[in-house]
Amino acid sequence: MATMADVARSAGVSVATVSHVLNGTRPVLPHTRQAVLDAVEELGYTTNTLARSLVTARTRSIGLAVSAISNPYFTEILQGVEASALEHGYSLLIADPHDDPEHERKVVQLLHERRVDGMIVAPSADPRGLLAYLGRHDVPAVFLDRLVDAPDGGPRFDQVCADNAEPTSRLVTHLAGLGHRRIGLVAGRPGLSTTSERITGYRTGLAFAGLPYDERLLVHGDSESAGAEEATAALLSLAVPPTALVTGNNAMTIGALRALRAHGLSVPGDIALCCFDDFAWADLFSPRLTAIAQPSRDIGAQAVRVLLERLDEPDRPARTLRLPCAFVHRTSCGCPEEPARREEPGQSLRLEQLDQPAQSAQSAQSERGTVA
């Protein structure tokens, strides 16, 4: 088996230079770096990770605790985490806390016992056990997607998430601009920061459009398809049901669509629909789904970057990084058929330009007898 010394002799450099190239610990001239990489390839050299961890006290591994890995949103985040980790020479250990606080603490402990250098965690709605464990053992960690307010005197952690309130408000004002006066929200699991922030955006959007808040139009789908199906059915059973819906994530969008189909309602003919979370097949639905697209992969990649910075500077102040979302304008909102328009933050039209009601949407709204 080839050694680092063999690689150094073949490349005509020192063992220290080989180490710097392989570990990224110091800049190396491009031609020197390439000579080392060529020698590694030619000799079939592989690093002894166990031996290196004994010397450096690091395993160059990251623990990732994310629930609902089957969810396309978290799958894309996982891809971003994995790509960034590999780019920096780190391996990834993955566990699913199942959004259960007790199981969450157990899987975090399991990852910690595997001697990961740090963790990236999407916290549950009750992260007290998680906070206590991470703080007690001084584990470097970054919270992903869902924010946590640390208790007074408790540990503070770096956090990376998408903007939630303003994009949700954008969906509501868009629907209001199309003439809707009763706009329902299928919100996520109570206790999650994403849920509370999107509810804030929903209420802000209503206020901006001059519409009253009606607590009967806000239901919780618990961030899952089945819960959203039941919650949407409850909205449809109201004496005066909503004429438009905003769903709080992609799984709940599926549940809402199932409920609408079960009630024999068409989108957007009978009810308009906008969703938080874009996903790969949203453009294949009929109608095509108007959605908020989160920068999922970038969230994952940024979480790795922030964690590695924390490992390098353990004492620096904790920070929260919010990434902007994009508005993807399609047809489920009731607008005329046209190519999907993705409006990145900072590139959007003025509100009065964006939300001009289409004549066809106004006509359909009039036929439904919208109630103010």
Task: State the main characteristics.
alpha/beta; seven-stranded mixed sheet; six-stranded parallel sheet; 13 strands; 44% helix; disordered C terminus
Characterise this structure:
By secondary structure, this protein is of the alpha/beta class. It is built from 14 helices and 13 strands. The longest helix is centred in the C-terminal third of the chain and has 17 residues. The radius of gyration is 25 Å and the shape is elongated.
The spatial strand order of the largest sheet comes to: 7-6-8-9-10-12-13
Q: What's the helix count?
A: 14
The CA-CA distance between the termini, in Å, is 77 Å
Order of helices and strands: HHHHEHEHEHEEHEHEHEHEEHEEEHH
Q: Mean pLDDT, rounded to whole units?
A: 86
- How many distinct beta strands? 13
Portion of residues in helices?
A: 40-55%
Give unreliable regions as ranges: 53-57, 347-372
Query: Main β-sheet, in a few words?
Result: 7 strands, mixed
Strand content: 5-15%
Which outline best applies?
elongated
Name the quaternary structure: single chain
Cα radius of gyration in angstroms:
25 Å
Structural category is alpha/beta
Reconstruct the topology from this structure.
Layout: H1 4-11, H2 15-23, H3 30-43, H4 49-56, E1 61-65, H5 72-87, E2 91-95, H6 101-113, E3 118-121, H7 128-136, E4 141-144, E5 158-162, H8 165-177, E6 183-187, H9 193-208, E7 218-220, H10 225-236, E8 244-247, H11 250-262, E9 272-276, E10 290-293, H12 296-312, E11 320-323, E12 326-329, E13 341-343, H13 351-354, H14 359-368
Parallel strand pairs: 1-2, 1-3, 3-4, 4-5, 5-11, 6-7, 6-8, 8-9, 9-10
Antiparallel strand pairs: 10-12, 12-13
